Automatic annotation (TrEMBL):
Domain of life: Archaea
Protein name: FAD-binding protein
PANTHER family the UniProt entry points to: ELECTRON TRANSFER FLAVOPROTEIN BETA-SUBUNIT (PTHR21294), PROTEIN FIXA (PTHR21294:SF17)
Entry GO MF terms: electron transfer activity
Amino acid sequence: MPELKIVVSIKQVPDADDLRIDPVTNNLVREGVPAVINPPDLHAIEEAVRLKERYGAKTIVLTMGPSQAEAALREALAMGIDEAYLISDRAMAGADTWATSYTISKAIQKLGGADLIIFGRRAVDGETEQVGPQTGKWLGIPVIGYVSEIKSLDKQKIVVTRTTEFDEEVIEAPIPAAITILETANKPRQPDIMSLIKAKTAKITVWNKDDIKAEPDKIGLAGSPTKVIKVQPPPKTRKAEVIDGKKDVEKAAKWFLDKIFEALKEEESTLKEYVKPKPKVKVNGEIWVYIDHIGEKPNRASFEIMGEARRIADLMDTSLSAAIVGGEATKSLIDEVFEYGADKVYFAETKGFDKYDNEVYTRALSTLIKKYKPEAVFFPGTRNARELASTTAIEVNTGLIADCTNFDVDDKGVLLSTRPDFGGKEMSTIVCPRHRPVMVTVRAGVFMPLPKVPGRKGELVREEIDDLFTRLKVLDYRIIEKRNILAEADIVIGVGRGIRSPENIKMAEELASLLGGVVGVSKPLADMGWYPKDRQVGQTGTTIRPKVYIALGISGAVQHLVGILSSRKIGAINLDPSAPIFENCDFGVVGDIFEIVPKMIQLLKNKEVS
């Protein structure tokens, strides 16, 4: 039997601390900036090597980029990959995910295809989560995102566990197939010295656009549907009140606790009423929101973004519509969607598919888009919706802008979508000038739902989808009962290197217990094994949105800040008055956590604060 052929697609990303942006082109300046393998891609490499060891396979790594990307390929070879290919051509520079996934698909075709193509879950520079699903779509093969375990693989099929925030399913699919792997699936190996030496002199094949027969109008900046038009530093959103706690520890501890309790008593801000803005322009198409759901249960993030989509629709002088895909159980969502502000609901009925299936849902949503031609489609930033947006964008031939946190409309009616890039260090404003609809995924927890109006009705447009063919077979399914307690906690006590030793975390646990909160840790502590990995907060851990986040001995590195920026209030205690955390908090104490925290614990035990 011929051996399996596994391709891993990786990316080099710049070190966020050395980031520079060209003020003329608004593109990232890669020359002279240290680059590393995109961290989630290390898990893709590891999974490919494990499969080779388990089943016997030929493993190939490829990347698109400049000549210095060879360093990433050599690292993959040192980890155990067999062959490496660099797709490098000046014409490919500046590609968005649409053009990148097209280029990767052409390179895989040049290789003669593959049985399995593995991608990391996301790129940490832009949080897109798009290239894997889009490459699979270009190649016309099954796509399975968010794989937490590969259960079996042979020349006919693959069986995997797919894990989202809400559910888990065991899926069987024929190969060839494309998957994205979760960071929890494995721990990437460290290559030994002999492997590193061997990889330094290994052959790397370099292909240009002509070698892979890429169409010139589909590659690079020129072929990309989306364009970056502005890059700027993130705005300051918090006004920090910081006091010196070195002289009077008890006073500082009491002040800090008072601030925590004030924050807890604050009502969560909601849109009490909606003030309609004056239109800037008149567009022909509607603004759509895709309603993400698990069976008949809607995801709250869908209603959050309807509030912002309503504003954009009014600025464009058009109507706000919602798109729902699903079977019989999903019909119950229609009334609730009207109550949250939709003027119209497009319901693509997929009988027997109440739950998300990428192939059926992509076909259904694409059918709606091609027939009714919306101006823009907003997707909540959940795993299912991100994957669906990625494959639908290829199906309807348009651009997709990921992880957006701000929107506006210019005088010409162009949607301006802004997202944090490079770990939140820069904000990029992106447009999709030539293709419609504009498609965007929206970060959860950023916007607020419109006030719910019980009994509100609108127009219902029903489309029955006849083609329900799918290559994905669900063998097992369960709702995830054990939720991420970090993501659900009202108070999170964050612990960083300043805690000095794992034993000292007990102090943070005691404070958390007295306040009714939980402990989270920065990446270095999780990496050292001082605390469970599922309690890591930050860019490569959990993004949280508690009522109060308290940073103890955390300096405030960019990678950590990304995970806490959605917190309603942030408090910090740190000895260093110049620590970046004090630029990104609401209240803080310059002081020693080993003096301030025990005093806070004592005050709470004595019930001297409330």
